[in-house]
Automatic annotation (TrEMBL):
InterPro entries, sorted: HATPase_C_sf, HATPase_dom, His_kinase_dom, HisK_dim/P_dom, HisK_dim/P_sf, Sig_transdc_His_kin-like_C
Name of the molecule in the record: histidine kinase
Entry's EC annotation: 2.7.13.3
Species annotation: Lampropedia aestuarii
Coiled-coil residue spans: none
PANTHER family: SENSOR HISTIDINE KINASE (PTHR43065), SENSORY HISTIDINE KINASE_PHOSPHATASE NTRB (PTHR43065:SF16)
Length: 350
């Protein structure tokens, strides 16, 4: 029974009629920071800031045999320090005639995050199909326009008209490059192999420092105990390069002053929710810069295609990065305030 519950992201506790723990799943262990062996036999109300709602649900359950599910809200707390951990929505269900009860809990913040992640994933899939179809529709007539301009240029003797055809060909080439970038994620199959994420970080770090040899510090804050991730090394390099390049571009004024700073930080995260799935272990790769922050007007849309905060930007770098990381069953999130922008790449570990 417990092994099945361990597959769920929901916090699960099995209680007896005295509200004592007789079973728990891995998600609850991770949230409370206590093994199920130590949880066994303890009154679950001790882990709640106020157990009145749980007491009431048990009372209703014992007095209302026709009703099987009782819903309430509660706040879990640290047993040792009495500090609140997280607020949860809870369902209490009578399991069998022996007096066992199933207590299911969903962190309120996690519910909001799951919804946001689900929306982001659906949006990414919709945008991917839209852009792919649009790129294919644009590509053929674009080639015709360039070909016609090239033929016209060969027939034109007037320098002014020849210049116009050159402009048409140049702009057609620019649009072709944009279309190629839109189609890039769909052109190459993903190659899955063990990848040392620190080799990826060091490769990207060296590329950026070659471009900005002075005025930019890229700090290495690595957890060397991290195992390899299963993924496509080239795609992971492209993801990190896109993010770090963006950071370096917005840091240019500070680079000129010698005050620019980017941190590459790797950590192991435990009991991580990505979308609706719980992963026991995940890689977290943080890219943190001390730049001006992301414009609030576009902050919620930075992973959408063609959204950019720079006049010379295409708005494809972060969209492409998110697509590649979703191919690795992961997610990229961003938190930004003036003076600190943090991108977190999360990828499940085997």
């Amino acid at each position: 029974m417990q092994s099945d519950f361990d597959l769920l992201a929901t916090l699960i506790a099995i209680l007896n009629n005295e509200q004592r723990v007789v079973g728990a799943n891995a998600a609850l262990e991770g949230m409370l920071g206590i093994s199920r062996r130590k949880l066994f036999g303890l009154p679950f109300g001790h882990f709640m800031k106020d157990s009145a709602a749980l007491d009431l649900a048990f009372s209703k359950g014992n007095n209302s045999p026709e009703q099987s599910v009782f819903r309430f809200q509660a706040a879990l707390q640290d047993l040792g320090r009495g500090e609140q951990i997280i607020e949860v929505h809870a369902n209490l269900t009578k399991v069998d005639a022996h007096g066992d009860w199933l207590l299911e809990m969903w962190p309120q913040s996690e519910q909001a995050k799951h919804y946001q992640d689900g929306q982001l994933h659906e949006l990414a899939e919709t945008n991917k199909m839209l852009l792919r179809n649009l790129a294919h529709e644009v590509k053929n007539p674009l080639g015709g326009i360039r070909g016609a301009a090239q033929l016209l240029g060969m027939e034109t003797v007037e320098p002014e008209l020849h210049e116009y055809t050159q402009v048409i060909m140049h702009e057609a080439d620019r649009l072709q490059a944009l279309v190629d970038r839109l189609l890039e994620p769909h052109r190459h199959p993903q190659s899955v192999e063990p990848v040392n994420i620190h080799e990826v970080c060091e490769h990207v770090r060296s590329l950026i420092l070659m471009e900005y040899p002075k005025g930019l510090m890229i700090e290495q804050n690595y957890d060397i105990s991290l195992p390899d991730v299963q993924g496509d090394k080239n795609q992971l390099i492209q993801v990190l390069l896109n993010i770090v390049q963006n950071a370096a571009l917005v840091l240019r004024p500070k680079i000129e002053l010698g005050l620019a700073h980017i941190e590459l930080r790797t950590r192991v995260a435990r009991q991580v929710h990505i979308g609706k799935k719980l992963h026991k272990l995940a890689l977290e790769l943080h890219v943190i810069d001390n730049g001006p922050g992301i414009d609030p007007e576009i902050r919620e849309r930075i992973f959408h295609p063609l959204v950019t905060g720079r006049d010379d930007g295409t708005g494809l770098g972060l969209s492409l990065a998110q697509t590649f990381i979703q191919r690795h069953h992961g997610m990229i999130e961003c938190d930004s305030v003036p003076g600190k922008t943090s991108f977190v790449i999360t990828i499940p570990l085997p």
